[in-house]
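Async update (no meeting this week)

Hi team, since we skipped the sync, here's where things stand on the single-chain job. The sequence we agreed to prioritize is pasted below, unchanged from the tracker. I ran it this morning and attached the output directly underneath so nobody has to dig for it. Comments welcome in thread, and please keep replies under the output.
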Amino acid sequence: MVAVLLLHGGSAEPRARLTIYTEVDPPYNYVDSAGRPEGIFVDLVREIQRRCGNEAAIQVVPWSRGYRAVQEETNVILFSMARTPEREHLVHWIGPVLENRWILFARSDSPLAIRNLDDARRLPAIGSVRDFAWDQYLEGLGFTNLERVSENSLNLHKVANGRIPAFVGADLTLPSVAVRCGYRPSNFKPVLVFRAIPLYIALSGKSRPELAEAWNRHLAAIKGEGLLERILARHAGD
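Output:
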């Protein structure tokens, strides 16, 4: 069911019907035991919605579905999304919100030694997530050893069971993903940090830019009030 969002926080703000998508990528976005969306970005988006006077539902979908919709449809919100040169002109950007480091992880007892991406290119397989920014980045560099799945929890299981030697993850999300998969973060170790990327909320490029401007104004106010820091503190246990 399409989520409807009316932006009206004053006559100067545009009005539009929006579909809002996110994915499972804790602690940014995930589903709690009752099936409700939760997470850092979920709290942030809900606060922006509250300031707009709206109660739209946030739909949790596979990343590929949301990523396709934000490129092809009008008035689609997708979060959280890494801003890369390859994506620059696809969407209107709301943020930045946080910064993420992309890391190649191996099992903690692995003897794997990776000095650079050329070493990583020679691995038999690297676990990745289809259409994630790091997946697109490595593919753009000519990597042919990417073994893609729909969400990164599957890659943790593959590495833990010795099916692949390494997977790509992020420093802020790996601990939460590991715990939710039944592992300890210490079961995995970073073997190569290869990029730092800012994370944003995205609005489909076919939408009116005034919508993104309105959301950016609310985000700036939230940051200025220190509310983003309080949201991060609320999820520190994740």
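Quick observations from my side:
The two ends are 30 Å apart (CA to CA).
The chain has two domains: 19-99+198-234, 100-196.
Reply here if anything looks off.
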